[in-house]
Design goal:
Distance between the termini: 29 Å
Helix content: 25-40%
Number of helices: 3
Strand content: 25-35%
Radius of gyration: 15 Å
Length: 164
């Protein structure tokens, strides 16, 4: 790993740890599922690793993007655990559940990042293999991989440099 990459990840750790903690807490409380972080890397591709992604814009003293990404099967499990609806297709209920889960995680992380004065956009859910999420050109997002009782998933978080 280059020195620049290590420096970028080190400077973002204050932003990433609240996301990891919030993810674990929301999964446990809302889904009854335990979560373990399995990886952390700078994102080098524009496509999320999974087919269903909730995207939330962040504004405040930093600008950023939060992306919660699940495989189809896991998104079905999230819907079932969250509201008790079973399905085998990505439909409006699945998208609503994934968007709401992303909103809960991002909102909980925001509470731990009060010094950034963040506002969150309404979640947008994008589906399909190979969908693309664009970040500002000066942002290199960090991809956090997780495994849970419901399956693997990722969260991507990218911030601009703080405004002083």
């Amino acid at each position: 790993m280059s020195a620049a990459v290590e420096q970028n990840m080190a400077s973002d750790v204050d932003y990433i740890n609240p996301v990891i903690t919030s993810t674990k807490n929301v999964f446990e409380m809302m889904l009854g599922a335990s979560v373990a972080r399995t990886g952390l890397k700078l994102k080098t591709q524009v496509t999320p690793e999974h087919e269903v992604s909730a995207v939330i814009g962040l504004t405040g003293l930093v600008q950023g993007t939060f992306v919660l990404s699940f495989g189809k099967e896991m998104s079905f499990s999230v819907l079932d655990q969250l509201v008790g609806i079973k399905t085998d297709e990505v439909n409006n209920e699945v998208c609503d559940a994934i968007g709401e889960l992303a909103n809960m995680i991002a909102g909980a992380a925001k509470a731990h990042l009060a010094q950034l004065e963040l506002s969150l956009s309404i979640p947008n859910v994008v589906t399909g293999a190979g969908h693309v999420v664009h970040y500002p050109s000066d942002v290199v997002p960090i991809c956090i991989s997780f495994d849970s009782d419901l399956g693997p998933f990722t969260i991507e978080v990218g911030f601009t440099k703080p405004v002083h």
